[in-house]
Amino acid sequence: MLLALGIFMVTLILVIWQPRGLPIGTTAVMGAMVALALGVVNSADVWTVTSIVWDATLAFIGIILLSMVLDEIGFFEWSALKMARLSGGNGHLMFVYILILGALVSALFANDGAALILTPIVLAKMKHLKLNPLAMFAFLMAGGFIGDSASNPLVISNLTNIVTAGYFHLGFWEYAQTMFLPNLLSILASIVVLGLYFRKDIPARIDITHLSSPESAIKNVIMFRLSWFFLALLMVGYFIGDHYHLPISVFALGGALLFLALATYFKATKPIMTIKAAPWQVVWFSIGLYVVVYGLKNAGLTTYLAGVITHLHSMGNGVAVIGTGFLSAILSSVMNNMPTIMIMDIAIGQSGHTALAYANIIGCNLGPKMTPIGSLATLLWLHVLRQKGVTITWGEYMKVGMVITPPVLLVALLGLL
Predict the structure, then answer these.
(1) 328: Cβ–Cβ under 8 A, 6 or more apart, which residues?
(2) For residue range 280-318, what is the model confidence (pLDDT) as tens digits?
């Protein structure tokens, strides 16, 4: 256990620290190779992990690739400007609309897509509107929070969702039905809690007269119009795939490549550059880190957690759901939600209480908001902000995250009861 834990901790520290710009995928693979060499895992474990995560990882790549093409068309900038215009200059209404936009982007294009693409757009608009530092901090923190808190509704909304749905064979429609109410409650709770927390920092009126028109953001009219029909057809494809039990990556990655081909035909993007810019390191990150995590499973950690889950279940369904959700949340905030989702999935499977998989997802999606290291999306979000000259310290982040996360998490979990 100590050896497995030591390999995991060193790997996780290097993933978060990224010394000399070391890619996260390379670090994770190095950790997996060390675990394999020291006998913490074996070659059969590597194959098991790969069979678990390949579909989820390729689907995630597809979702991000689709988001990147839409961004090049001007789809997201048009959306942000549209929301700002709809507010009519009412600061609090704009705050709510930005949260709703973040929730929609997260639902359809994953929380990492929201962090990578929507964050710089919102930041640019906030600067253009000349908001003071406190107001800008409020909008940015809210946007970062909603990206994860609203990433529950669909299997494609978060890599954690895809992994768990694949692990427990949860259908696209089954998943969406179960998560509809918890996600709706999570969004409403996020709006209320964030609005109350930042109520003094949000200006009553914002001058939007200098904002560009939404139409000016559209870089390719044909592809912009086509994108609405394509996204609708893609959503239908997910349900068809669910009916025939097809891998979700068939539609997520296949659809993204088809959309990229269309964008290339209409000269809306440069395909080679777009494909190169896709986060391929996530493939190696997923496989490598999960191999390291599997070492913790072999050492007995998941057996212990399965015992905790069984004990919670013995005290009633409500205690089991809330207890599992908060257990996943705390583990995610300390050791990142990607390893947590797999450890907890295995533990839930061992306990036999597979219905708690949904509580695990909610805990792993919201719990990371308590600390900056909790999720890949938050790390990406902080990285994007630093690139744009905005630095949010760990203290500033946790001061907000520790306060607003628990009540939103509780409300979301109540939706499962």
Answers:
(1) 337, 340, 341, 344, 359, 360, 362, 363, 364, 367
(2) 777 788 788 888 888 988 888 899 999 999 999 999 999
Angle at 95 between CA 364 and CA 60, to 5 degrees: 35
CA gap 354, 337 in Å, rounded: 19
For residues 35 and 275, the model is more confident at 35
Predicted confidence (pLDDT) per residue in 95-119, tens digit: 999 999 999 999 988 887 777 788 8
Domain carrying residue 382: 2-414
Rounded to a whole number of angstroms, the CA Rg of the chain reads 21
* CA distances (Å), origin 207, targets 86, 88, 94, 125, 364: 13, 9, 11, 12, 38
Our count of domains for the chain comes to: 1
Q: What is the rounded distance in angstroms from the CA atom of residue 18 to the CA atom of residue 41?
A: 24
Dihedral sign from CA coordinates of 224, 232, 108, 165 = negative
Question: CB-based burial of residue 18 (10 Å sphere; 0-12 exposed, 13-18 middle, 19+ buried)?
Answer: middle
CB count within 10 Å of CB 21 equals 5
